């Protein structure tokens, strides 16, 4: 039905926008993780984790890394969902995915 097709295109458009937003969020987390890395990654600091302060920069780096991992998992799932929708070979759904990706990158 026409209403179902419009709803499908809108859902794909929103999923594509969300995909782009997660991609930008992942880049932001990467920047923060790189800033939280300790200046010296000597062997002693890697071998003796018990002397670390939990609020140290290495602890923050690990938190950012876990966040990046979760964002990556969601990004992969959304990417495959959008790909499967595009593989339906429907021109309107394809245009919704392209428009959603464009709007998501723009915003």
Could you list some keywords that capture this structure?
107 residues, mainly alpha, 4 helices
Explained architecture:
The structure is a single chain. The protein is built from 4 helices and no strands. The chain has helices at 2-36, 43-47, 57-86, 91-106. The protein starts with a helix and ends with a helix.
Strand and helix map with partners:
Layout: H1 2-36, H2 43-47, H3 57-86, H4 91-106
- Please outline the major beta sheet: none
Return residue spans where pLDDT drops below 50 for at least 5 consecutive residues.
none
Oligomeric state of shown chains: single chain
The H-and-E topology, N to C, reads as HHHH
How many individual β-strands?
Answer: 0
Helix % is over 70%
Q: N-to-C terminal Cα separation, in Å?
A: 31 Å
Overall pLDDT:
81
What is the 3D form? elongated
Tally of contiguous helical segments: 4
The fraction of residues in strands falls at under 5%
Radius of gyration: 20 Å
């Amino acid at each position: 039905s026409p209403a179902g097709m419009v709803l499908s295109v809108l859902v794909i458009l929103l999923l594509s926008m969300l995909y782009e937003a997660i991609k930008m969020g992942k880049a932001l987390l990467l920047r923060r993780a790189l800033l939280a890395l300790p200046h010296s990654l000597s062997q002693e600091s890697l071998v003796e984790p018990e002397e670390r302060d939990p609020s140290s920069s290495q602890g923050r780096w690990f938190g950012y890394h876990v966040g990046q991992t979760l964002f990556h998992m969601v990004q992969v799932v959304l990417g495959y969902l959008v790909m499967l929708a595009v593989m339906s070979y429907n021109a309107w759904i394809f245009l919704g995915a392209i428009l959603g990706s464009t709007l998501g990158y723009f915003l």
